[in-house]
Amino acid sequence: MTKVFFTSDHHFGHRAIIDYESRPFADTEQMNESMIAGWNEAVGQEDRVFHLGDFSFLDKEETSRILSRLNGYKTLILGNHDRGRSRSWWLDAGFQEVSENGIIYKEFFLITHEPLYMNRHMPYVNVHGHIHGQKYAGNNHFNVCVEHWNYKPVSFEALMDILASSQETDKNDHNPLSSES
């Protein structure tokens, strides 16, 4: 059965991100290899992965080598660090699909690189990257940056379980009967 995964902000080949985000790697080679291994542990060949931007700081040849080693059908939503390269550059490098804008997934999830403003009355969940180790509070945002997920893609099933659990907690917190015995 095909599974769907979300991830973002790998920054393959970006030395400075190790320091900026206190990543637990000695150098970019260790970081790249660890993230490739983590991706392939989680994602099967037939699975689909939405990468929500800032994939690689490497040239096309090196980026292509990494993409060829990663399992799954890969869709890239361009991040701020990806936009210096054309959509065709990313397709040539090995992504099967590339979107310059966000995507609406299953009519409920807004999948973007940067988090969007979502007030509590909006009926959507924004699945995003960009903010690395930071986290937005509330049920309307879901940060899939690698720093939150042990440098692996997170499955749609796991995302749904977490959202269901947080909505149940939120419902109980606002239910005046939930504190009665």
From TrEMBL:
Database matches in SUPFAM superfamilies: Metallo-dependent phosphatases (SSF56300)
InterPro entries listed in its UniProt record: Metallo-depent_PP-like
Superkingdom to which the source organism belongs: Bacteria
Name assigned to this protein: Phosphoesterase
